[in-house]
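Q: What changes when zinc ion is included in the input?
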Amino acid sequence: MKIYITADMEGVAVLCHDVQVDQKGLDYPRARELMTEEVQAAIDGARSGGADEILVCDAHDTGRNLLVEHLDPDVEVIQGNPYDLGMMSGISRDFDACFQIGYHSMRHTHAGVLGHTYTYDVAELRLNGVAVGESGLSAAIAGHFGVPVILVSGDAHAVRQAKSLIKNLVGVPTKEGVGLYGVRTLTPARARELIRKGAKEALENIEEIPPYTLKKPVLMEVEWTRPLMAEYTAHIPLVRRKDIKSVSYKASDMIDAFHVFDVMMKVAVMAKEEGPL
Ligand SMILES: [Zn+2]
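A: The predicted holo structure follows.
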């Protein structure tokens, strides 16, 4: 059985601030250790559930976070930037299931610690009318390849948001936001134990968990935090201005949607550099 693991950092137990998850932050060295250990726990759980091949995508920020030398020697890891499919680089029809580890909630989630969707420029992303964060977006990309997301670990809101999209998903909340920069968290040891158990349980129930597959064409709507971002991104071919801060794009499938979203985010950065509007 082949398992694909996409690993983020903001949803790892304990972490609650940029000083931890930003590579230049003082507490980052500890944060990457905590992230690595949660991924290793997911690998252990996958092995006990019958996985024989595992690919891990280092999906946070620069993609250079996991201490690969501390992982099970028999996994492979995708690291670095840029990717073909962002947080889902390397996914294909060859995989039987996907785990999301260390995932966080979407932007504008009450007490959704460090919540965002790829960047803090995105106020809301909707796919076929449904608001999704990174978890939903990654699940839809996996779904394009017929691969179900069967386990999500991270903050309680990320798990709740994933469960609202995917039936029978195994969720492992490792902390709960008590503010956008505050958490009530499990200890790393307990979080890892629950991730190990959750991974095994998810693989035992793999037949009950469907892929998150979207109807094509996929209507993608992006609400930005600033009007100028909508003004600039609306100039991308086939992207339409919806309202003062929003644009939409009718994508042929999820891969097309993600590639245009990726370009949009880069154009939004140019808008931010232009001025404060
Ligand atoms: Zn993230």
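Observations recorded in class: Residues 8, 10, 104, 134 surround zinc ion (CB under 6 Å).
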